[in-house]
């Protein structure tokens, strides 16, 4: 069974999410075709052709495809989609912008944000902001899915040799025009909306330690900085960093509690975080009772070591 | 959501709109308002823009045509977020209700639209150092001097007085006529001869300052509300309304305390299991819920009577008594569920306990409410 | 220019939903409902366009059961001029909603349709894109800024890692992201006035649209609860677990 994967790329390199999407595609099919639509794609076509499991790379190149405009891209994908049982795209802003438009063109109900593939027609996806996991079955002849890259392992980037096929890039519908793109400098996100939060407690011991230990780590992760009340009261961190009952209530994907003992007021402010990591020298600290991963030891050694071992950023 | 008896979709829509403002703007500041004694009169213009400051008034004078139930739900939502703010609004309503009930259209036109728009805040001055539970014992005098009255006396615990644009003052025009010698006046706050003292140091509702106010000033005859001698009757009618506002404030504080207690009981583990698993705690929660719902029902019953134009003094008194006593019990029990943490100023429980305490005292203490209820039975 | 806004009635975002014991769905009895927050941003944007003299009329549309009228009343209280309810008691999935909206668009002929980027119940993030496809209109999804100049709509979009600006020909579809604006507090007098604004009720049959669901929800479940804290022995083990087990990197 052949699966079509819509690649996300910037005309030069493949986005990491595409590799996970191919990983997901391999769960429903054995032959993967990847569509690369854009302009000046030589390098990315080469790279894609080397991905093991990819049988064919479909290449559509034209200036009107350069910026991934959904208006021009959707008819192209819709024309291909009928030939496959599954069409997958990453559940990124790119995939979410494009795939529903394709789906409506071929009268199919797409499935967004797939986190597990139960069978070729049955999928799991989070609803209600992840508080509920729904299992849904698609009854359409073609299944259109956007998949969460965090839920599927990426495929390796070398070892394969796919056939490359050039296709008709279609017309510029002229309905939309790309004006500009500004990629955010990794300025620190707001506590309320951050995907990752690094919080420090009394264990940091000084505002200098917040700067020297916590900030580089947070910046590496594209994380917001939080603090326990004890750290705020001691003047290590400003007031608006306080996480807890009387501070901000947060629920990021990933929460690092560094040198925080875990008073119940603090726990009330962060316990809904998806994954909690605690680093503390006191093995009995209550924070370890809510942490998914606890690391006992000296934060002044462990945090820099952690920073050194992170080879993949999280922010993007 | 299933509603309590007598609440319409419109009432709910209004309350939801107020709740949203209250949760976004008031709740995050409530502990600072309490800690630093920040005057909640600062919210008056925002609340007026929303439509809350004139909510007790007919549309003609800037009101919104809300039902008594909508008014209660809205005040409860505000109290849930910040007790001081609810109290500040209550004092404003005491003043504007006095004008609405006691005055004629001329004086209503002069004061009420400004009161609804937030241009002028109201204060209500009935209590005196020697006349609280027994307002008939007041000694403040208003003596006719041509086209004016000379107002002389001291009023005690007057909420909003310093920031008010006008103060409704009750005074004796005839010291020998008992309650029939009392008249009501609208006095502009900045009339020469009015001295507002520094606010009292309060246990709770610390963002709703109450002042001693000394009057030795002239008030135009045109600022008298109704006839000479009609003031006491006006005051009693005003209190019928305002006791429902106090009941609503009680309900809001109780809702906040109970919600905190339930959340804490589910969260806090003692001996390896949540507090909520312990029957002793469950019974506390059940008793709180029971008293809260009972208080809601009698308050809404009183509101329905008010809406129907029936006499409701006794129901208003029962609602205030029931809800304010329930608020005392519920805030205290909710604090108990929180243990030592409830006693810290880190959590809002101790503030709720302190804020709720006044509700059994002002606008007729609990003892006085019983008198009002009984009088309706034996009179 | 006429602007249409689509609004959905959803479980209030403060409510923590629970699954029914048999997993057949989410418990909706006695749950507080409200307008989808992203739709509220869309309504706010439409009303601002009207206040700026750009929109001549704002029409709010909702699709679903009778109580959606309350949601429409909220849109009217925020400043929409009139409302249309496409009343249906059956489950309406995004594709059906897009088809119904297309039929309403054909009747109303707006130049701009604003929607929220997604509803906070099903989190599908599809309806706007599908409506655009069905109408053959351009789409500005996840908008954080909308500007009309010389017959073109400039839409700044929140994309992964930054912002992108597109110029769209009108008529167009825009879906609102969080930072597009901050919706106003609805004033109490507006709530009362909204009761007098027109609200028309039509049915999917009137529009000739088949709304049969395409996806079958087999079951719902709450995510596995947090495990008791496990300790890791080293930084290397932590990094590997975060990558391979928690999959957060
Ligand atoms: C924060 C605050 C704000 C206030 N705001 C205002 C305001 O804006 N305007 C205003 O006019 N007033 C205001 N008041 C005054 C308030 O209404 C009075 O304090 C209240 O009516 C009680 O009067 P009192 O303090 O003189 O107590 P007292 O009358 O001295 O009563 C003392 C106690 O004796 C009880 N008691 C009295 N008589 C009887 C009886 N016959 N039988 C049984 N028990 C009895 C009372 O219930 C009470 O428990 C405010 C008070 C406070 C503390």
Automatic annotation (TrEMBL), chain A:
Keywords: Electron transport, Transport. Residues 3-182 form the Electron transfer flavoprotein alpha/beta-subunit N-terminal domain. InterPro entries: DHS-like_NAD/FAD-binding_dom, ETF_a/b_N, ETF_a/FixB, ETF_alpha_N, ETF_asu_C, Rossmann-like_a/b/a_fold. CDD domains: ETF_alpha (cd01715). SUPFAM superfamilies: Adenine nucleotide alpha hydrolases-like (SSF52402), DHS-like NAD/FAD-binding domain (SSF52467). Belongs to the ETF alpha-subunit/FixB family. PANTHER family: ELECTRON TRANSFER FLAVOPROTEIN ALPHA, ELECTRON TRANSFER FLAVOPROTEIN SUBUNIT ALPHA, MITOCHONDRIAL. This is FAD-binding protein. The lineage of its organism: Bacteria, Pseudomonadati, Pseudomonadota, Betaproteobacteria, Neisseriales.
UniProtKB/TrEMBL annotation, chain B:
Its cofactor is FAD. It comes from the Bacteria. The keyword Electron transport does not apply. Residues 8-118 form the Acyl-CoA dehydrogenase/oxidase N-terminal domain. InterPro entries: Acyl-CoA_DH_CS (IPR006089), Acyl-CoA_Oxase/DH_mid-dom (IPR006091), Acyl-CoA_Oxase/DH_mid-dom_sf (IPR046373), AcylCo_DH-like_C (IPR036250), AcylCo_DH/oxidase_C (IPR009075), AcylCoA_DH/ox_N (IPR013786), AcylCoA_DH/ox_N_sf (IPR037069), AcylCoA_DH/oxidase_NM_dom_sf (IPR009100). The keyword Flavoprotein applies. Keywords: FAD, Flavoprotein, Oxidoreductase. Residues 123-216 form the Acyl-CoA oxidase/dehydrogenase middle domain. Residues 229-377 form the Acyl-CoA dehydrogenase/oxidase C-terminal domain. Belongs to the acyl-CoA dehydrogenase family. This is Acyl-CoA dehydrogenase family protein. It comes from Crenobacter oryzisoli. The lineage of its organism: Bacteria, Pseudomonadati, Pseudomonadota, Betaproteobacteria, Neisseriales.
From TrEMBL, chain C:
Pfam families: ETF. The keyword GTP-binding does not apply. Residues 23-211 form the Electron transfer flavoprotein alpha/beta-subunit N-terminal domain. InterPro entries: ET-Flavoprotein_bsu_CS (IPR000049), ETF_a/b_N (IPR014730), ETF_b (IPR012255), ETF_beta_N (IPR033948), Rossmann-like_a/b/a_fold (IPR014729). Keywords: Electron transport, Transport. Belongs to the ETF beta-subunit/FixA family. This is Electron transfer flavoprotein subunit beta. It comes from Crenobacter oryzisoli.
